């Protein structure tokens, strides 16, 4: 195919995927819709600066317009179709598009560097034994990941250390997270970076459950309209699909395992007080509704106690007592640790250029060079 035709086809595909009309795009980047039509029809050679503006608008790297990284990725196509079916805003669709590009980039870099995608176990799930199977799956995964019965306030970092990318992108309030899987590319998780860390933690656990159970479907997309963290009423919980019920219960047993909750809860003579609840929430890294529901489920709180505490603004009180800022040393790396490691290693080996690494990571080429220099200095210093 002629290169201008290819660029034009990719420009049109990216625009339509994001739900933009030609007139909207033209207005946003300061050109006429007629000129954009000529670009999409392959009748004009777009300047690099123009492609950079369009790439930023569509949430993709400039390299996409040239046809790089043409991997299969059926799971990502399904994810984008689900996004369009749910009538999500163009901004969120653009971020989902960026998620797709970053996942393909990770898969491409793994191939270049000779790094295999992580293998994942599967767990049986049936409607009749869902609760038992969700608990067994959570316990098995805790054992496989070497977590024992320790609290896991940052599950994303644990999974990324296992090579499972957890990509954080701003998704407004429309989407809490997503899972995409492709037989060739592997599995990937997406969480809303605009949400508080405890909600992100719960979303990671739920999307990981989907990856373990539902990856054969290719993709799952979660909207924020439903309750998070297990606080939904029983009637609402019964209305959830089998996949969502499993994900919810897996997250409960994984992040709030019964033995750990009981061990830590026994330290308090009375759990019906703000200090105990604040301490437990911070230890487990979950939302107050998730914690309250679990304590009630295990018999430490009554339903009327849960209702009372749900009306109290414990989050606001916690911020006043502990400060607005969370523990800065525990903040996750920007976008994805797996992505950064692969991009920087590929740049170090000269598999990709510094400028391309900078484009993928969203920083300047000079910053890439500085980070590589510091990493090399640390590596050499550690060998001496």
Quick gist of this model?
This protein is of the alpha+beta class and 384 residues long. It is built from 19 helices and four strands.
Walk me through what this model shows.
This protein starts with a helix and ends with a helix. It has helices at 3-18, 22-29, 33-40, 48-58, 74-85, 90-113, 130-144, 155-161, 197-214, 234-239, 242-255, 258-265, 274-284, 288-297, 303-311, 314-322, 337-348, 354-361, 365-383, and strands spanning 166-169, 175-182, 186-192, 219-223. The chain is globular. Residues 226-239 have low confidence and may be disordered. By secondary structure, it is of the alpha+beta class. A hairpin with a 3-residue loop joins strand 2 (175-182) and strand 3 (186-192). A four-stranded mixed sheet has the order 1-3-2-4. It folds into three domains: 1-68, lambda repressor-like DNA-binding domains (434 Repressor (Amino-terminal Domain)), CATH 1.10.260.40; 130-330, no CATH class; 337-383. The protein has 19 helices and four strands.
The low-pLDDT segments are 226-239
Please state the average pLDDT score: 86
Q: How many domain modules?
A: 3
Distance linking N and C termini: 53 Å
N-to-C SSE series? HHHHHHHHEEEHEHHHHHHHHHH
Structural class: alpha+beta
Shape: globular
Task: Give the neighbour order of strands across the main sheet.
Answer: 1-3-2-4
Secondary structure tally, helices: 19
For the CA atoms, what is the radius of gyration? Answer: 23 Å
Please report the total strand number as a whole number: 4
For the report, how would you describe the main beta sheet?
4 strands, mixed
Strand content: 5-15%
Helix content: 55-70%
């Amino acid at each position: 195919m002629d290169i201008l035709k290819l660029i034009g086809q990719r420009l049109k595909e990216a625009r339509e995927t994001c739900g933009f009309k030609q007139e909207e795009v033209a207005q946003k980047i300061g050109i006429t819709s007629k000129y954009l039509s000529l670009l999409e029809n392959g009748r004009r050679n777009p300047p690099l600066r123009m492609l950079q503006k369009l790439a930023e608008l569509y949430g993709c790297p400039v390299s996409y317009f040239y046809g790089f990284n043409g991997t299969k990725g059926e799971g990502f196509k399904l994810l984008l179709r689900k996004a369009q079916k749910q009538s999500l805003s163009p901004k969120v669709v653009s971020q989902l598009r960026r998620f797709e590009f970053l996942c393909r980039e990770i898969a491409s870099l793994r191939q270049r560097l000779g790094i295999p995608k992580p293998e994942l176990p599967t767990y049986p799930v049936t409607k009749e034994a869902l609760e038992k199977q969700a608990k067994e799956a959570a316990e098995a995964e805790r054992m496989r990941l070497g977590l024992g019965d320790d609290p896991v306030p940052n599950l994303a970092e644990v999974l990324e250390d296992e090579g499972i990318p957890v990509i954080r992108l701003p998704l407004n309030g429309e989407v809490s997270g997503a899972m995409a899987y492709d037989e060739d590319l592997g599995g990937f998780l997406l969480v809303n970076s605009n949400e508080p860390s405890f909600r992100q933690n719960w979303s990671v656990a739920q999307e990981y459950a989907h990856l373990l159970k539902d990856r054969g479907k290719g993709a799952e997309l979660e909207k924020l309209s439903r309750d998070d963290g297990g606080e939904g009423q029983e009637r609402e919980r019964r209305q959830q699909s089998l996949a969502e019920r499993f994900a919810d219960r897996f997250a409960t047993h994984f992040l709030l395992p019964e033995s750990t909750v009981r061990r830590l809860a026994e330290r308090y003579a009375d759990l019906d007080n703000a200090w105990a609840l604040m301490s437990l929430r911070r230890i487990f890294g979950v939302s107050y509704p998730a914690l309250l529901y679990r304590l009630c489920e295990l018999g430490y709180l009554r339903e009327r106690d849960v209702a009372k505490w749900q009306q109290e603004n414990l989050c606001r009180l916690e911020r006043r007592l502990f400060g607005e800022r969370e523990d800065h040393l525990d903040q996750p790396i920007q976008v994805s640790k797996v992505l950064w490691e692969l991009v920087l290693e590929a740049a170090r080996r000269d598999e990709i250029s510094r400028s391309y690494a900078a484009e993928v990571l969203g920083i300047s080429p000079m910053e890439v060079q500085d980070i590589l220099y510091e990493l090399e200095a640390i590596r050499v210093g550690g060998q001496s």
